[in-house]
Structures are given as structure tokens and as C-alpha cells.
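Progress narrative, work stream C.
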Amino acid sequence: MLPRLVTGRKGGGVFKRILSGLSGANLEIFKFGMYIMFPIGWMYYFGTNLESRFSVPDFWPPPESTHKIPHEREELLAELERLKNQRLERRARRLEMEARAKEGSGSAE
């Protein structure tokens, strides 16, 4: 036999008894409480214990394998010098390739 609430028969159901007491001001207070508590509960559930609940192992690289940002003046100057040398090497390689391409296209004509 199905409960009365499911069958729709008249009589007392659990939800009907709870909601019948909520009318007028009580219903508005209940709705206001739900409007306030639902987002707070949602944020509390998803905001606590994030490290163990939503973590992916080995997602981020270890700090030893990432770039080290220079903070001291000497480190900054050394990094700038390294970048300048790298840029000049690439420029020299590019100019050499362009010169070879020019020589190759000049002999083909």
C-alpha cells in the first residue's frame, strides 16, 4: 500500500503537516532563511577541505623544475645578459640563413 502523500488521498502527510503551519509571515521567514542558508551552505561545502576533496595529484610541476625569478640586482643583470646573448645568437643564425637563401636564389637565376 502506498503512503497517503504519494496517492494524493486526503489525510495527513508529513509534508502537508509541515507546510500547513507555514503560512503568511512564517512562510516568508522560511523562504528568506532558505534564500540565505542555501548559498552559504553551498559555499561552505565547496570551500572547506579543498586540498583533499578536489585535488589532482601531480597537477602542478614541483618548484624545483619551474622558472626561478631573479630578485637581486646581480641576478637580474645576469639574466638580461643571458637573454641578450640568446637574442644575438638567434639573429646571427637568421642572418646566416637569409644570406644562404639569397646565394641559393641568385645562382638559380
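Work stream C, second folded protein:
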Amino acid sequence: MSSTSHQERTAAEQREANLHQVKVSQINQVNDTIRLLRLSIPPAKQFRPGQWLDVYVPGIRQAGGFTITSTPLDATYRCHEAGYLELAIQKSPNNPPAAWLWRPEKEILGSDILIRVGGNFVWPPPRVDPASIKRLVFVAGGVGVKFSSPLMSILSHLHKTTNQLPEHLELLYTTRLPPSANLHTILFVDRIHKLFQQNLNHHNHKKFKLFLTQASRDEEPPSLSWPASTEGSRQTFRRRMSHGDLLDAIGHPSGRGGTVVYVCGPPGMTDEFVGVLRGAEGMEEGRVLCEKWW
């Protein structure tokens, strides 16, 4: 874990003034290193897609920082069902809040914790009119929950509020090939597939490109089962994401005034990719947003 705390790294970002008590209501084990937690929340709890939580667990003064992976619609009270927030928690023994949230299920289920919403990496993008966005590109890279979680919330929100879907939507996701060579074990990949299979609007063009690093070129990468009708909307590559991939995703220079890009990943990757994107012909600096995680 980085020696810089979550609170120190995010000190300049907006966050709520007050803490709110919530309850750990559900725990789902994704794999040996990741679990999904649902937090039951008070009515009218609001946040913006892409934001994170300061999380205070019993007995630990240090706040943990965990990105919300659910949508604002999930947080609303519907049909006698309480709203919830979902967090993806990576097993991190050296991170005290994360280690507490990885205790045996029977020890923490039903426990009360304190949260506070914060973060500037949000949808819709600040100072950009959503109606002006014709092409929306998401770039996620790295291993673990930190790099895909904020984009998952935004993607899910866009598909639940279909009037906000732009004409072109593209996700470029780079990660290591799992040791099992089973793509289904990559966090959120199944959710992403389902979203990109939704033919909600025939005028929307959606692409999902998965870049697998440390994959042998001598063997075909494993593939997921997709309906034939969606074959053109996803591609799997056995290499690193290139600058050319980024420039292709943002479209022709003449149309980049209607493009917005969200980049999320480790500092080295985000610095490099944001530099390429903001320096591209026709791109405005304020239309390239980034979030770094250590």
C-alpha cells in the first residue's frame, strides 16, 4: 500500500462535510482476492457516478477510500426496498480498513460503518454540456478494483438512463491475463459484456476492447460467449494498449470537439495517456478527465 493515505491523496477534492452511518447488508465473493459489499443507506442518499467513499470502520481511525460501483438509481428507495451502495474491496492485509472489510462474513455482516461521499471524477463531466458529447471514451488500466470501479459506475448509470447515451461509446480496458486464463475472473468483465450487449438504441455505436498483457502470442486467448449480433462490438488483443489505439478511439480530428475521455489507472499510465489525448489535434484539455490510484 502507498505510504500516502487516501485522505492525503484526495485532500484537494470535493467531499461531503458530514459522515453518515450505513450498514453492511450483503457480501458477495467474486474470487479469492475481491469481494463486493452492499451498504444499506438512508433514504435520499445522493452521489454522482464515479465518486468514492471515505469509509470509517470500527476501531480504526484511518479512513479507507473505496469507489462506488453501483449507480444513483440503485441508491433510491423502490418498491419497499431500501437503496444501497456497492463497493468492490480488494484483499489488502496492509490496508487496515480493507482488512477489516475482509474479515469473515459472520463478523462484519450487519455492522454499522461511517461513510462520506467525495471525488471529482464524475459523470456528467464538469463544465461540459452532456448534450454536446457525441463520442464518449473510457480508458481503464491496471490490476485490481481501483482502476475499473469508477468507470463501472458511470457505464452502468448511462445504460440505466439511456437518454444520456452518446452516439458513440467505447471502452478500452487493459489488464493482465488471469493465471487461470479465464476472462470471467476479470473484475466486472461479465457486467461490461452485458451492458454492451444491450441494444437499447440502434443509433448508438458501442465498442469494448480488452487488452491482455503477459499473454502468450503462441496461443489463442480465451474468449467469452457473445451472440453473433454483438461480434463487431468487442475485440480482444494480446498486447498492451498503444497510443494509436487511443487516437483511433477519439475519432477524426474534425469531430473531436464532441469527444470526452475518462482515463483511470495507475499514475504512470494515466500521465502518459492523458498527455497523448490532451495533445491530440482537435482535443480540448477539459474534455480529458483522469483519476489516478496508487
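Confidence is low (pLDDT under 50) at residues 225-230. No further action is required on this item.
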